[in-house]
Amino acid sequence: MPELSVRELLDLDRRHVWHPYGPMPGRQEPLVVESASGVRLRMADGSGELIDGMSSWWSAIHGYNHPVLNEAARGQLDRMSHVMFGGLTHEPAVQLAKRLVDMSPEGLEHVFLCDSGSVAVEVAVKMCLQHWRSLGRPGKQRLLTWRGGYHGDTWQPMSVCDPEGGMHELWQGVLQRQVFAEAPPAEFDEAYAERLRELIGRHADELAAVIVEPVVQGAGGMRFHSPEYLRVLREACDTHDVLLVLDEIATGFGRTGALFAADHAGVTPDVMCVGKALTGGYMTMAATLCTPRVADGISRGEVPVLAHGPTFMANPLAASVACASIDLLLGQDWRTEVKRIETGLRDGLAEAASAPGVRDVRVLGAIGVVQLDHEVDMAAATAAAVREGVWLRPFRDLVYTMPPFVTGDEDVARIARAVCAAAREG
Ligand SMILES: Cc1ncc(COP(=O)(O)O)c(C=O)c1O
């Protein structure tokens, strides 16, 4: 039984608890969730349920309170919830690494398990810098990316988020100065591809890696681009001796209609980051995968180890749930489910295209986006979605959804109606 009334809880929350990108004390009252099941969040104030159009930021692909994932967590809890990973190993971690290697693009063979998406990107960058340092090329320590990206909130990831208009603009001049290309156009443009090749070539001596979100740029603007650019990056990186890092933290595990967005292009990166849906949204865990080439480089150095080892590395509870989540995904016809949601979102969002104030409507896999021609009024847009019985979290000029893969057709239609209402009123 809850010990606090909703009012007491909100007062304490406002006084003591930071929320993402929030001021202290908080200014906007959050909704209090009492429990969640399937695709529905149950509100603690007795107002009923909301369909989750956000999958808890891309992660809850199987919905909430799933019996298979619950059982995986319970079973592991009875064995051990955690042991340190230095000098010890365990079956959940080994099973998870094997599954990740088997399902990810050919050639990625080594897995570093870590705590969150941002840390996975930190580890990826460390791997790349250390690879070149170990090979006697310490000058290769900058990163190249394209504008409009988002890679997390810790230090290295912030340096490759879009420095203008992005979430971390404040830190310009403090963060390491990276090399930025223009944001990728939606369609393939040979002139843009040529500029990318030229930029990589020009900076090759100082570049450790190119890092991008493949096919979908998420929190930097929910923009889609042609997978063909990944082939351009792969070729240019090979030509100029630069590593390629693909950040699949948002796009991985089927979200874009391919298991990994790199699969749309048939490209293997040197390093790949996954997170978010890795545990089906149950708990925090991410992973950085790399090829033997990257690992060999590191092991030839003066310091032949990857000096990274978080306390909760390879947490057995999270690893067990991640294994169960991957088995659940691969054991079903997930492509058909994602396609079904894509069709539902296309149909449901079509009316928004001609609505006043709407700049663009785009859908890819289980992702639907309405881009406005103005900054969204977040409170008004959220309230409009809630009136439709749906939870959405618009930002900047975007009202968007990426529902759990188990969302039924009627609920997808309702989510689309809520996106349209939020776009109209926000
Ligand atoms: C592409 C991408 N990379 C990295 C991250 C950071 O992940 P986390 O929030 O788990 O640190 C995110 C989170 O939204 C993301 O979308």
UniProtKB/TrEMBL annotation:
Q: List N6-(pyridoxal phosphate)lysine occurrences by residue.
A: K276
Stored Pfam families: Aminotran_3
Q: Enzyme group, top EC level? A: transferase
Give the EC number(s) under which this enzyme is classified. Answer: 2.6.1.62
Which InterPro entries does this one have?
A: Aminotrans_3, Aminotrans_3_PPA_site, BioA, PyrdxlP-dep_Trfase, PyrdxlP-dep_Trfase_major, PyrdxlP-dep_Trfase_small
Named in its record, the pathway it takes part in is:
Cofactor biosynthesis; biotin biosynthesis; 7,8-diaminononanoate from 8-amino-7-oxononanoate (SAM route): step 1/1
What catalytic activity is recorded?
A: (8S)-8-amino-7-oxononanoate + S-adenosyl-L-methionine = S-adenosyl-4-methylsulfanyl-2-oxobutanoate + (7R,8S)-7,8-diammoniononanoate
| Gene3D superfamilies found in the cross-reference section | Aspartate Aminotransferase, domain 1, Type I PLP-dependent aspartate aminotransferase-like (Major domain)
Indicate which residues the UniProt annotation says bind pyridoxal 5'-phosphate: G117, S118, D247, P310, T311
The protein's location, in the record's own words, is: Cytoplasm
Q: Per its Swiss-Prot or TrEMBL entry, what cofactor is needed? A: pyridoxal 5'-phosphate
Q: Which UniProt keywords apply?
A: Aminotransferase, Biotin biosynthesis, Cytoplasm, Pyridoxal phosphate, S-adenosyl-L-methionine, Transferase
Subunit (UniProt): Homodimer.
Q: What does this protein do?
A: Catalyzes the transfer of the alpha-amino group from S-adenosyl-L-methionine (SAM) to 7-keto-8-aminopelargonic acid (KAPA) to form 7,8-diaminopelargonic acid (DAPA). It is the only aminotransferase known to utilize SAM as an amino donor.
Family stated for the protein in its record: Belongs to the class-III pyridoxal-phosphate-dependent aminotransferase family. BioA subfamily.
Q: What is this protein called?
A: Adenosylmethionine-8-amino-7-oxononanoate aminotransferase
Organism in which the protein naturally occurs: Streptomyces siamensis
